[in-house]
Amino acid sequence: MKNQLKAGILLSYATTGISIFIQLVYMPVMIRLLGQSEFGLYSLVSGVVSYLSLFSLGFTGAYLRFFARENQKNDREGLAALNGMFILLFLLLSCAALICGFTLSCFPRQIFGTKLSGAELQEARILMMILVVNTAICLVSGIFDSIVSAYEQFVFQRVVSLAATVMNPFLCLPLLLLGYGNVMLVVVSTCIVVGKLAINVWFCFWKLKIPVSFRNLQFSVLKEVGIFSFFLLLNMIIDQINWNVDKLILSHTNGTREVAVYGVASQINALFMTFSTTISSVFSPRINRIAAENSVNSRREFTILMSKVGRIQWMILGLMAMGFVIFGKFFIVNIYADDGYGDAYWAALFLVLPALVPLIQNIGIEVQRALNRHQFRSIIYFIMAIINIFMTIPLAEKFGCVGAAMGTAISLVFANGIIMNVFYHKALKIDMLYFWKEIGKTLPGFLAPAILGVWIIRSVFFDSLMKYAAWIAVFSLVYCLSIYCFCCNKQEQALVLGLIRRKKNEP
After folding, report:
1. pLDDT-based confidence at residue 190 (cuts at 50, 70, 90)
2. Residue ranges per structural domain of the chain
3. 235 and 381 Cβ atoms separated by less than 8 Å
4. Per residue in 330-345, pLDDT tens?
C-alpha cells in the first residue's frame, strides 16, 4: 500500500502536470477556433449543468468513511450490502438527474436570460441535453471511483484519469480544425466518460472482485449515510454558488462575451485548485483509517500530516501564484486568448490569491469528513455563499467579470482565511499555530524571487515569445533554488534529491 501511495502521488502530479500542459496548449486553440461568443456559451451551459452534480447528494464522499468502518470490522457481508446500497443509490440518482436536466432544458430563456440571441438559446438547449447525459453517467462512475480509492488502487485510478485527460484534446482538436463547434466537443467528452465508466466497472468487479449484494440492504445505515452526506451536499451547493453562479449572473447582466472572459479566469483558477487537491485526495483513505482507529495521538497525526502536505502545496502553488502575477497578463492576452480577454487577468487574481489559504489546507477538509465534523464548515460556507450572491450582483453590473470575482474573493477571505482556521484549532484540535509556524518558516525563500518579480514587472518588456519564455525560465530557476536552500527542511530536501536520483537512474 505504501508503494501504491507513493506511486499515486507521483502519478497524480504527472496527471496534473500533463493536464496543465494540455490546457495551456489546447485551450488557447479552442478559444480562438470557437470565438468569444461560442466559448462564452460553452462556459455558461457547462456551468449551469454542473449543478446537476448535486444529485450525488454528497454520497460519494460518505462512501470512504463508511467503507473504512466496515473494513475495520472485517465484515464482508456488511461491505457487500454497503456496496450494493451505494451502487443502487447512484443509479437512482443518475435517473433523477436525467429527468431534472431534460425538464430544465425546455426553458432556456428563463435559465440563461434575455441577453442571448435565439440561435444562442437553441444551441444552449442542445448543449444542455448532451451535458445532462454526461453528468448522469459521471454520477454512476463516481461511486466506482470511490470504491477504487477506498481500496487504495491509486496507480490504476491515476492512469485512467491521465488517459481521459489526454484523449479529450486528442479527439477534439481535429474536429475543431474541421469546423465543428460546441456540440461535437461535448459529444466527444460524453463518449470518454462512458469509456471511463466501463473501465472502472470492469476493474471493480473483475480485478478487485468487490463483494456486492442487493439483498438485506441496511436502511438504518442509509439513514446514517444520509445524515452524514447532508452537509457534504451543502458543501457542494456552496462550491457551485461560489464557482459557477457568477457565470449565470453575468449572462443576465452582461451576456455571453463577459461570461467568456470570466470563463478564462475560471479555467486558470481551476488549474490551481486541481494541483492542490491532487495530493490531498490521495491521503483520504489514510485519514479515514486514522479516524476509524480513534487513537489518542490521532489529532497530533492530523496536525503533522496537514503541516507536511500544506508546506509542499504552499511551495508548489507559490511558484504558480507568483509566476501568474508576473507573467499572467501577457500570457492571457498574447498566448491563451487575445486582447478581448484582458480583464480575465484581474478576475483570475481575485479568484486565485484568496484561494491559496484553503488550497494549502485541503487535508483539513478530509479530516472533517473522516471525523464527521464537517457540519460547521457547511453552515459557515452556506452563509458566505448567500452573501457572495448579494455582493456579486451589483459588482457584476458595475465592473463585469472583475466585479463578479471580487464578490467571490471577499467571501473566501472571511470564510477560509479566518473562520475555518479558528474551527480547525478550537474544535478539531489541529494545532493551527504549529501549521502557520511551519508555513512561516518558508518565507525567507520567497524573498529573492519576490524581488526579481518586482524588477521584471517594472523593467522588462516582453516583445517576443522567446524573451518571455527565457524570463519565465530565469524566474523559475531562481524560485526553485531559493525555495530549496531557504524553505525546504532536511526531509523535503531528501525527497527532492530522491526524485532527481530516481529520474537519472531511469533507462
Report:
1. very high
2. 2-440
3. yes
4. 988 888 777 778 889 9
Task: For 180-229, give the DSSP string.
Answer: --HHHHHHHHHHHHHHHHHHHHHIIIIIS------SS--HHHHHHHHHHH
Can you give the pLDDT at residue 217? 67
Q: Which three cell numbers stand for residue 295?
A: 487513537
pLDDT band at residue 456, thresholds of 50, 70 and 90?
very high
Position 4 pLDDT exceeds 60: no
Q: Determine the straight-line distance between the first and last CA of the chain, rounded to whole angstroms.
A: 25
The reported pTM is 0.69
Q: How far apart are CA 91 and CA 54, in angstroms?
A: 14
Q: 266 and 299 in contact (C-beta within 8 Å)?
A: no
Tell me what pLDDT residue 89 has.
84
Of 134, 130, 139, 136, which is closest to residue 182 (Cα–Cα)? Answer: 130
Give the whole-angstrom CA distance, residue 58 versus residue 65.
12
Q: What is the mean pLDDT of the chain?
A: 82
How many CA atoms lie less than 13 Å away from 9 in the CB half-sphere? 14
Phi/psi for 462 (5° steps) reads -85, 100
Classify 420 as helix, strand or coil: helix
d(Cα 83, Cα 90) in Å, to the nearest integer? 11
